[in-house]
Design brief:
The chain is an alpha+beta fold. It has 6 helices and 9 strands; from the N terminus they run H-E-E-H-E-E-H-E-E-E-H-E-E-H-H. It has helices spanning 4-14, 51-55, 83-88, 124-133, 164-177, 184-200, and strands spanning 36-40, 45-49, 66-68, 74-75, 95-101, 106-113, 116-119, 145-150, 158-163. The strands form 2 sheets. The protein has a 6-stranded antiparallel β-sheet. A 3-stranded antiparallel β-sheet has the order 2-1-3. Helix 5 runs antiparallel to helix 6 (184-200). It is globular.
């Protein structure tokens, strides 16, 4: 007598074995290590996707919940902010990234640290003044591109328009190397190398 368990066992045994590795979070197709990302604007999260799914959400003019993360990098030399302007933004460290969240309808700021990305209580009035002083901020695409900034005690700030996934890659890499109160030498070296790589792109 054949039982339901026997039937299920035969079905399971006939299924092809799936190759190990990462898969698209939309269609489950296998994806390479250098895969692309899509932002879920409602869930405020990145999704790893295959090329086919990535291409579905590249229309920046469409009203979509998902948005493909572009791959452009731009340098903003002579950016309109100094140390005092940075302090007015109330960010406690000299590193942060800013992007406009379309679901919230406002700019949000995050800075890295030992626990990962921490959201800043951004002073929107200060940010709007900054935007008025430097029109290049209008180039950032909502949700998928960010302004990554590094401000030091000496020298001009470093400012780049980058894909949003690059910011989270940066935060994750820094968190893995962070030691002690101020991050330590490995974290400093990682920050230097990351900004050098971005400048090269």
């Amino acid at each position: 007598m054949t039982t339901p368990f026997d039937v299920l066992s035969r079905i399971t045994s006939r299924r092809p074995t799936q190759a190990a590795g990462e898969r698209c979070e939309m269609c489950a197709e296998p994806i390479a290590d250098d895969h692309r990302h899509v932002v879920d604007t409602a869930g405020r999260q990145l999704m790893c996707v295959c090329r086919g799914c990535y291409l579905l959400f590249t229309d920046s003019a469409a009203d979509l919940r998902y948005r493909s993360v572009p791959d452009r990098y731009l340098s903003f030399p002579d950016f309109a902010v100094d140390r005092l302007g940075w302090e007015a933004l109330q960010i406690p460290v000299g590193l942060a990234f800013f992007f406009r969240n379309s679901t919230l309808g406002r700019v949000v700021a995050f800075y890295p640290g030992p626990a990962g990305a921490t959201e800043s209580e951004l002073d929107l009035d200060q940010w709007q003044r900054l935007g008025g002083a430097d029109g290049r901020l209008g180039l950032l695409a909502d949700d998928v591109e960010a302004l990554l900034m590094r401000v030091t005690e000496t020298g001009a700030p470093l400012c780049f328009l980058v894909p949003i996934d690059a910011c989270y890659e940066f935060v994750g890499g820094l968190r893995a190397r962070w030691r002690g109160f101020d991050g330590g030498a490995d974290a400093d070296a990682f920050v230097d190398q990351f900004f050098t790589t971005i400048a090269g792109r």
